[in-house]
Structures are given as C-alpha cells and as structure tokens.
Amino acid sequence: MDGTRPHRTNPLLRASLKRPNILITGTPGTGKTTTARYIAEATGLEHVSVGDVAKEKECFEGRDVELDTYILDEEKLLDHLEIILADGGKVVDYHSCELFPERWFDLILVVRATNAVLFDRLSARGYSARKREENLECEIMQVVLDEALESYEKEIVHEITSETEDDLQENAQRVKDWLTQWKVDCRDRVQKAEGMEE
Ligand SMILES: Nc1ncnc2c1ncn2[C@@H]1O[C@H](COP(=O)(O)OP(=O)(O)O)[C@@H](O)[C@H]1O
Ligand SMILES: [Mg+2]
C-alpha cells in the first residue's frame, strides 16, 4: 500500500461529496435557457448550455440544409460534457435528453408550453414555417417528455411550465427545496454507509 491512497474509498462516500447535476430539457422555445439561468442564479449551481459547448468545441459534422440544423458530432460533444459535469453542480440545458448517459443527472425538468405561446415565441425567433411547424408538432406529441421518461427513472422526471415571471420564481424555489432535500438524503446515506463500515 502506498501512502497516497485516500482514507475514504467507499464509492458512496465519494459520490456524496459531489453536487447534483440537473437537466432542463424540452422543445425549442419552451423556456429552457431562461429557466436554467434563473435556477442557476437562485441555487448557485452553474448553467451549462449544451448548444454553446457544441459551438465552442466545434462538435459538428456538417449542416443539414433541408432541416436547417447542424449535424452534431455526438461522441465529441459527450466527451467534452463528461469533463464539464464530472464534479456535479451543473444546470444543463438542451432540447434533447436521450443522448446523455443516465448516470449524469439527478433531476430532469421537462419544460412544456402551450401551442399559442410556442407559436409566438418561434415566430419571434424568425423560424421558417416548416421549422416552426415541426417544433409545434414535437411539443404537441410530447416527444421530449416521452424521451425523458424512457431514458431516466420516472421518479426524477418532472414537467414544468415557463410562461410568466411567477413560473420562473416558483420553479427556482422548487429546485432549491429539492436541493436541500437532496443534501439531507446524501448526509443520511453517508452516515448509514459509515455505520456499516464500522
Ligand atoms: N417564464 C417566462 N416568462 C416570460 N418569458 C419567458 C419565460 N420563459 C421563456 N420566456 C421567453 O420565451 C422565449 C424562449 O425562451 P428560451 O428560454 O430561449 O427557450 P429555449 O431555451 O427552450 O429555446 C424567450 O424570448 C424568453 O424570454
Ligand atoms: Mg435555449
């Protein structure tokens, strides 16, 4: 045995020292970025926009002209994100969720919007009629919610809305409360694990 080995090697103990990662997902225009920024501000967690990481790290393989989107180099993006999320404490914002490993996230919030609200927001964003229709259909068909429910434990998936200032405050408060409980649960798990070690 060399002397550099940490005293505590219990994986549960090590995991408990990390802060949780939260994923904010949903159809484009539902309010992910606004919500994620607000939650980050309220909780002290750090906002990570996956789209920005993809751009900064150039995780694209080309452009799909017909769909008017970039083709993502998923492997490259996931490699970068893995490093960013390793220490926890991140509020991640992305319009899809099935590409991430399940173990990365402790809470999944799916932002939902009504047709009228989404229509106005996507129009204001200057989306083409086709792109707007595709996204409206995606929201009506609850594609991202189903994706989340298939990719993660149902218990950690929650739907939220982001239409008013009150929604932002309420959502941030809910996450703050969740975070407090998460820390309590972690402490309990650690104490239990320590008890078992003795
Ligand atoms: N709770 C809210 N109250 C008022 N406006 C909102 C709210 N949430 C989102 N918006 C507005 O809706 C638009 C889309 O929000 P955004 O956060 O960019 O969506 P997404 O990141 O999901 O594409 C923005 O103009 C934003 O200001
Ligand atoms: Mg956004």
TrEMBL record:
EC number(s) recorded for this UniProt protein: 2.7.4.3
Binding site for ATP: 29, 31-34, 125
Principal place of residence: cytoplasm
Domain of life: Eukaryota
Reactions listed under catalytic activity: AMP + ATP = 2 ADP; ATP + H2O = ADP + phosphate + H(+)
Record's GO cellular component terms: cytoplasm; nucleus
InterPro entries registered for this protein in UniProt: Adenyl_kinase_AK6, P-loop_NTPase
Region feature (NMPbind): 49-72
Keyword Hydrolase (UniProt): no
Swiss-Prot/TrEMBL keywords: ATP-binding, Cytoplasm, Kinase, Nucleotide-binding, Nucleus, Ribosome biogenesis, rRNA processing, Transferase
Subunit text: Interacts with small ribosomal subunit protein uS11. Not a structural component of 43S pre-ribosomes, but transiently interacts with them by binding to uS11.
Function: Broad-specificity nucleoside monophosphate (NMP) kinase that catalyzes the reversible transfer of the terminal phosphate group between nucleoside triphosphates and monophosphates. Has also ATPase activity. Involved in the late cytoplasmic maturation steps of the 40S ribosomal particles, specifically 18S rRNA maturation. While NMP activity is not required for ribosome maturation, ATPase activity is. Associates transiently with small ribosomal subunit protein uS11. ATP hydrolysis breaks the interaction with uS11.
HAMAP family, A to Z: Adenylate_kinase_AK6 (MF_00039)
Family: Belongs to the adenylate kinase family. AK6 subfamily.
Stated name of the protein: Adenylate kinase isoenzyme 6 homolog
Species whose genome carries this gene: Nannochloropsis salina CCMP1776
